[in-house]
């Protein structure tokens, strides 16, 4: 029999404290749904009464399988539970559970809360009792627990014990400042579970020494059975414990998977990379390429000897199978690459070619030449695939852009406001048909993109759902002159993403090349015939 470990997500509350993150109600509901589908046990939705979004979130039943949890403070010192508006908002919230944040450090009780140690303990007891009386599951987040324990272990433990004795389902030990180290977390949690059963103890770690994940795992080793964290490690300062790293570690590393069971199934685990990227997209942030398990580079290999070993047996350089977390192996094609990288990449994208085919040498030359000009194929997998297929002669000439024109005008409009208007006109030949499209955009690249994708005749249906989701520009010094490299990330309606590249001394032209590659790549993938 394995022990059950519980996962508690606080992306929507602690994660919302991240600089620059501002969830709408729709964002919160979408993320809650994803967490529920993933198999997360607890979803902390927010702090009812603290802001309109969170109040609205808890105004209706949200019908999740996860335990929807409202977060808030214990009753205020010197007030009764029936005379505390904050507590009333928590008890009214349509939530399955209430997580109270309570001070567990004598220093914070005196200095921040300005009350007595006894009154703080009474507030913990009264609040848990009120939540249970209202039919809710109760959790108590013991704030500054580890710092408090170091200076006054008896008081920190007494707070935790008070919560437990009143019937809190979980007593959560918080490393609020994030400065505690794994061996300290291990030792302190081991001491706590001598007083409170481990199956009632949780860990809430912050990442200020880059060890929030390690601290969470140390707490589990020492006996804690609930882990609190966020998607992609969102959270104020350096973030919270990253559930996206913790989940695969619990599922795939025998030390944990042999001993523990979590609510995330193997099938859900395969959606993890997707979930991580969707969250980044909602926040309009570029995904962290180097994120463990789910980052685009998490299973990417560059150097020639590693690549040839990976071809023989992937386990030589991979600690887990990339597909287990919905990621994939990637052998980077670059000017450092040898033939083995190239062959591995061709095999991955499904291009069958004999090892001694003359065209491989030609493709390698072409890649090296173009990378010297500024193209970056290791970042632009779709452009690489097109280059490879073109060298092998398998990309149809779907359409020809005969000409395009982009106009940017800055002027005063009829009511005297200064406006900048961008327009693009594109003339495309599809078979014998000549199509002319025009579009306005919020900038020249956007206008060109819209005009180009407006009407591609018989191919239009293939690109309907195509969307440009990220656009990155770098100025490079290639040879004697500065050139612009544009990387475009596109997405289709299946959620599939790919990156293309363009290089030119002119930013519009570089963008155009990358857009063209993106469209042609989509047509190739969709199996469109010329
Ligand atoms: Zn926190």
Q: Can you tell me about this structure?
A:
- The chain has 530 residues and is an alpha/beta fold.
- 38% of the residues lie in helices and 22% in strands.
- The chain is built from 20 helices and 18 strands.
- It has helices at 25-38, 52-57, 85-92, 106-111, 117-133, 145-151, 153-165, 182-192, 212-222, 243-252, 254-257, 266-269, 272-282, 304-312, 339-348, 358-373, 381-391, 444-452, 460-463, 507-525, and strands at residues 3-4, 6-9, 42-46, 67-73, 97-103, 137-143, 170-175, 201-205, 226-229, 260-261, 300-301, 330-331, 400-412, 418-430, 433-441, 467-478, 481-491, 497-504.
- An 8-stranded parallel barrel has the order 2-3-4-5-6-7-8-9, surrounded by 6 helices. The protein has a 3-stranded antiparallel β-sheet with strand order 13-14-15, covered by helices on one side.
- It is elongated and about 85 Å long.
- The chain starts with a strand and ends in a 5-residue tail after the last helix.
- The relative contact order is 0.07.
- Zinc ion (ZN) binds at residues 14, 204, 206, 240.
- Zinc ion binds at residues 14, 204, 206, 240.
